[in-house]
Amino acid sequence: MTVTEHDSTSSIDSSSVDPAGAHAGIRHGAVSAREGAFVRRFGVRDDDGPWNDTLAVQFDHRSVRRFTEQPIDEDIVRTLVAAASSAPTSSNLQLWSVVAVTDRERVGRLAALAGDQDAVRHAPLFLVWLADFARAERIVTARGLDLHNADYAESTLLGVIDATLAAQNAVVAAESLGLGTVFIGGIRNDPETVAEILGLPPRVFPVVGLSVGWPDPDETAEVKPRLGFDVVCHREGYRIDEQDHGIAEYDVRAEGFYRSQGLVGSWTGRIVSRLTDPAAFGPRRGIRQALASRGFPFT
């Protein structure tokens, strides 16, 4: 099949990109692509800095929830997993795995668990990213040893971080091929049932789902505004009191974005609701117990 290439800017000569250069890919006309990307994402013009096709893909990220029925070829699945495997991993332990799900009945069952989301139900490919100590345990026990250090909170974090880094690498790879993606946190609504559906052994925990597919031509997803540089980047030390102005500015932009998408409210309002409503996390309030039952105790 023909893969759709990401067109970051018509004026960038990708053949001249030097991947080792700090300012790889800067050519006449590329500034306008960078500037447009910054305006869309942050509401500010920034035409002073590097730009290339990889940055264009990252800046253009949006959550796509509507897909065509076109399947994802196996060679693409293998490529996405290879990209995921190329992500950083703590001490090269590689404490993650992924289950690629295309069977419609199984996808449907996972969709039901994840809040009956159409973005899952109609995804031609659904990837479930796993923190995986089962493989490590098998290696250790084959030598007649005990997996003592897997019972620390630090080990749980290692598995979750490894899985998350791998998943994000796969997202960038998928979007560089013209695919749409959306992360699905609802996969943690019922980790035990997810484990049953996917045949997960003990010491394996579903961290997040990822719907992947060719975007529906009628998909209206837009680039979502993000907090500005001065809010999220601190120089030499953290400064909580210096964020207020940037947050207020962002709230105005975010509210306008939500309104354009037919939604109401502000970003700060969502923060307040999410962190004060006792029902906001739903079944995921029991995530600590679910982790422990899957073999991820917090010692």
Which features would summarize this protein structure in a list?
299 residues; alpha+beta; 12 helices; 41% helix
Please describe what this structure looks like.
This protein has 299 residues and is α+β, with helices and mostly antiparallel strands. It has 12 helices and 4 strands, in the order H-H-H-E-H-H-E-H-H-E-H-E-H-H-H-H. Strands 1-2-4-3 form a 4-stranded antiparallel sheet, with helices on both faces. It is globular and about 60 Å long.
Regions with little confidence, pLDDT below 50 for 5+ residues? 1-31
- How would a crystallographer describe the biggest sheet? 4 strands, antiparallel
Rounded average pLDDT: 89
Count of helix runs:
12
Task: List how many beta strands DSSP finds.
Answer: 4
Strand portion, in percent?
5-15%
Give the distance, in angstroms, between the N- and C-terminal Cα atoms: 50 Å
Report helical residue fraction: 40-55%
Q: Strand order, biggest sheet?
A: 1-2-4-3
Rg, Å, rounded: 21 Å
Structural class: alpha+beta
Shape: globular
SSE ordering: HHHEHHEHHEHEHHHH
